[in-house]
Amino acid sequence: MSSVAQSGLHLAVVDDGFSLGPLNDLRPSFDVRTGAMTTLRRMETVLGLTASLWVPQSLSALARERHSDRLINALPPGVSKVLIVNGRCALPRREWLDGRELHLGATVQNADEAIETLRVYTSGGHKPLEADAKILLSRPWHWRSVRDVAINTDLALFATMIPRIVPPATCIAFGTFSLHAQENVKIYPGVTFDLEHGPIVLYDGAVIRPGVTLVGPCFVGGNSHVLDKGFIKANTAIGPWCKVTGEVGGTIIQGYSNKGHDGHLGDSWLGEWVNLGAGTTNSNLLNTYGEVICKATPRSSNERTGEVFLGATIGDHVKTAICTRIMTGAILHIGSMFAQATAVSGTVGGFTWATDAGQKPYRLDKFLEVARAAMSRRKITPSEAYLARLAEVHAAQASSVS
Q1: In the β-sheet with 52-54, what is the strand arrangement from edge to edge?
Q2: Tens digit of pLDDT for each residue in 289-335?
Q3: For the chain, how are helix, strand and coil distributed in percent, rounded to 5?
Q4: Alpha helix (H) ranges present in 243-342?
């Protein structure tokens, strides 16, 4: 990909500082996995451009680590025009390149005007219109609004990059959609590929164990393992380095998270370093079949989500004990630990230590000890920038725990 289109247009993707709750505590909004791809990768692939990235100061160190090959908060020399796209826009359109279709959150500016525009965006001053809510994410549950379109867009893009394969003779496959897998994907005997309603893409290093059923459209990310007898239903996207089994449907996992045992996980979003204990199960539909009502934060007002099927939105480093029950529409903010017999419901603030004795703040030193141990299992040592950001988010959120 080029940084400049044939028209001389450069792409700048901007995190405007707007909080999406647990989705973007530890990453810019454009690095959130909103389908099989992150928003940034989808945007660059659709537009055929490599972006410069603009982030608030609080995320600049992390952004420089994760995107060391990119310009951060700077434009390349010699650029005449800049397409500025809000990083919360999960559904990019090719038509932006020629200016035929621009919506709120995507504007073409001359390079000398772009810097001022970017300052407005990074200050958080940009407010989306209500009509744009389905395009520009503004609540933690809006990943659900864009999920199906995003996953199908991503799988179509991957189909042009990853070879189509014939399912192994030791497996069962039916349906007319395609199966795509890279060379070093391992598929064990006894896997069922349901290709009736969408394609399936298996990324670099994915492992599909015996007895697994995969239902398209779905995506299994690099080095992720779908464990024995797992039932992965449609509209699921599993990020890299995960271990997943049980019944999982309509779920997006950012990466580096484990659901290694039986239990239902439906219409949910998981961050990184989440571990769901054996038998953890969530509800994704009210007994009344009504619209799910949620709060973005524990202190926010109730809001209509527009969703009937909505499971849990679970932040990075959340852990659950065995047989944890999570109620419809729950939002579990970053770094919380749940070991309670009663069901987890509503919106729970970050760094909460929840047991049958009640809730109390999760001490930062203890939390970091556990986080380092979990990350070491993937041979990852948290950087100073990552630790500093955790401490910053802890200071902001732990005070909300009762």
Answers
A1: 52-54, 9-14, 81-86, 106-110
A2: 999 999 999 999 999 999 999 999 999 999 999 999 999 999 999 99
A3: 25, 25, 50
A4: none
**Structural domain spans, the chain:** 9-138, 148-362
Class of domain 9-138: alpha beta
- pLDDT, position 347: 97
Q: b/e string for 252-289 if b means 16 or more Cβ within 10 A?
A: bbbbbbbbbeebbbbbbbbbbbbbbbebbbbbbbbeee
Confidence band of 9 (pLDDT split at 50, 70, 90)? confident
Pairing of strands 331-332, 258-259: unpaired
Residue positions counted in the chain: 402
Per-residue pLDDT tens digits for 145-168: 999 999 999 999 999 999 999 999
What does the mean pLDDT of the chain come to?
91
Q: What is the mean pLDDT of residues 268-288?
A: 98
CATH fit for domain 148-362, picks 3.10.170.10, 2.60.40.10, 3.40.190.150, 2.160.10.10:
2.160.10.10
**In degrees rounded to 5, what are phi and psi of residue 392?**
-65, -45
Environment class of 320 (CB within 10 Å of its CB; exposed 0-12, middle 13-18, buried 19+): buried
Q: Structure tokens of 240?
A: 């890299």
